[in-house]
Amino acid sequence: MKIAIPIDENKEDTTICMSFGRVPYFMFIDTESGLVEFIKNDAAESQGGAGIKAAQIIVDHQANILLTPRCGENAAEVIQAAGIKVYRTNGNSVKENIAALKEEKLTLLEEFHAGFHGHGNH
């Protein structure tokens, strides 16, 4: 199983980032091999569509599960279309959330916000 998590810094004792589309890095954890990799989120600097681009990174790295505090609708569509399950994190500890997932204590994230589309006047 491969878990993806949006994180603040590219190190193992980092915290979970509250943003999905504009997160600085993603951590990918292979629960079978124990391999951990950090991927820079190139979408963070995008003018628009950051969530969709960030979601594509999750898909491209073949994650099975995404742990995140929140996610926009457009990003969620990309992720769910790839068959990836999205779970809501509880607190900002990476280790605690992975443990909670394994103990089946996390709930599926089912409410997705409309996204933050640019900085225009809406």
Describe it:
This protein is α/β, with parallel strands linked by helices and 122 residues long. It has one domain (2-102): Dinitrogenase iron-molybdenum cofactor biosynthesis domain (Nucleotidyltransferase, domain 5, 2-Layer Sandwich), CATH 3.30.420. It is 24% helix and 20% strand. The chain contains three helices and five strands. The chain has helices spanning 50-60, 73-81, 94-102, and strands at residues 2-7, 25-30, 36-40, 65-68, 85-88. It has a five-stranded mixed β-sheet with strand order 3-2-1-4-5, sandwiched between helices. Strand 4, helix 2 and strand 5 form a beta-alpha-beta unit. The mean pLDDT is 92.
Quick summary of this structure?
This protein has 122 residues and is α/β, with parallel strands linked by helices.
Any idea what the CATH architecture is? Answer: 2-Layer Sandwich
Largest sheet geometry: 5 strands, mixed
Integer tally of domains:
1
Shape: globular
Helix content: 10-25%
Distance between the termini: 40 Å
Strand content: 15-25%
Question: Which strands sit side by side, in order, in the main sheet?
Answer: 3-2-1-4-5
